[in-house]
Every structure is written in C-alpha cells, then in structure tokens.
Amino acid sequence: MAGDDEVLIGSFPKNKREEVRVTLSKYKGYDLIGLRVWFKSEDGSYQPGKSGFSIRTQLLPELMRLVDRAHAEAAKRGLLGGTTSKGATEEEKPTNDFRKIVDLLDEDSGGSR
C-alpha cells in the first residue's frame, strides 16, 4: 500500500447505532487488516469505538479459514435464517469478501506478500 493511509474496504451494520468496518492500514512498517466497531455520535457522524482489532495481513488466511468454519457451523445449526448447510440459501453461503481483500493485498504488494 502506498503511504500510511487507512483504506476502508467495507462496512456492514451491527445495529441501529453501530457498524463494523474492515480496513487495511500500515503501522510501524506492518501491513494490517482491521475490524472495528464504529458508533454514531450525537451529531450523526460515525466515530471509532473501543471494540475491534488489527492483525498482520499474513494472518488473514487463517482468519478466513476460521470465519469459514464458523459460517459452516452456524449454517449447520440453523443459525442463518433457520436453514441447515444443505438447505442454505445463496445469501447464507460464505461470501468471498475476505478473498477479495486477499486479492487486493496481493495487487498492492505485487503478489509478493
């Protein structure tokens, strides 16, 4: 990535007052992926909250593996709209959002992470 700027990859609502943001950044020479809860302040703007974490991008494949496992287990238990993994709808199947992030990282590093 160029510079120490934080790049917002995307966000999704957590509830009416909060959203989860996924970012890429660099800190002290380390490439990081961050997941943080942002809350809506009194003036309507979003501010970063205390909840969240950042990890080195090299750990992203392991995070993806665990999120995929959690998704499969949640689907198996009927926690994704009440269906099982065999009956999961297209919306409930694991998305490739994390894979898109990895692809973006590969593009930024010229494929040499």
Looking at this protein, list some descriptive labels.
113 residues, alpha+beta, 4-stranded antiparallel sheet, 2 helices, 26% helix, flat
Textual characterization of the structure:
It contains two helices and four strands; from the N terminus they run ββββαα. It has a four-stranded antiparallel β-sheet with strand order 1-2-3-4, with no helix packed on it. It is of the alpha+beta class. Strand 3 and strand 4 form a beta hairpin. It has a single domain, classed as Transcriptional Coactivator Pc4, Chain A (Transcriptional Co-activator pc4, Chain A), CATH 2.30.31.10.
Outline type: flat
The low-confidence runs, each spanning 5 or more residues with pLDDT under 50, are none
User: Helices and strands: which structural class?
Assistant: alpha+beta
- Number of beta-strand segments: 4
Beta percentage is: 25-35%
Mean pLDDT: 82
Determine the CATH topology: Transcriptional Co-activator pc4, Chain A
Helix content: 25-40%
Q: What number of domains?
A: 1
What characterizes the major β-sheet? 4 strands, antiparallel
Our count of helices gives 2
End-to-end separation: 11 Å
CATH class: Mainly Beta
Spatial order of the strands forming the largest sheet: 1-2-3-4
CATH superfamily: Transcriptional Coactivator Pc4, Chain A
